Amino acid sequence: MADTLKGIVVILLLVFAFVFYPAYRQSVQVEDNIRDSATAVVKEFVDKVRSKGYADPIDYDIFLRSLDATQGVFDVQIEYYKKNIEPIYTNPNDYTTFQDSFQVRYDGYFTKQFLDVLYPATPAAVDHYSRRFNMHVGDLFHVRIVSQGETLAYKLRSVFFQGASVPINITYGGMIRSEAP
Prior knowledge:
Blueprint: H1 2-52, E1 54-55, H2 57-68, E2 74-89, E3 98-110, H3 111-118, E4 133-134, E5 140-147, H4 152-161, E6 169-175
Antiparallel strand pairs: 1-4, 2-3, 2-5, 5-6
Helix pairs in contact: 1-2, 1-4
């Protein structure tokens, strides 16, 4: 009886070692490849926008197609902060009360406002100037993507380790370096 039980335990360990563990490692590698590819796509799009000083529908469509090619399902969130420099006055109605200093304020524009400019209600040509989201030097532009689906690695991790898995979450951005002509 003990030998039979020992044989069953050995068979179960061999099945785990030769079937489940390699499948888990392969799925983790696929998830890492998706993360690396998505990171490269986000960096390429953000760097292109930061160097050009504007975003247009062509670049955004290329970004979405490249993101789809990673085989992941992502929620894309865009943040743009416009830099405003305001002089400081003790009495805003009297320009002679200027305090020799300025205040920097950032106005935030998010995914909806960004997409409303790229895809307006009134149709225009894809390369039309009105469909550009123009930015200025010193403004901030960020893109965040969060995975929405569950990968095989996520499912296997939850089965084997009984723990919650962290979704793929990539944030990249920075200051606009150039302005659109």
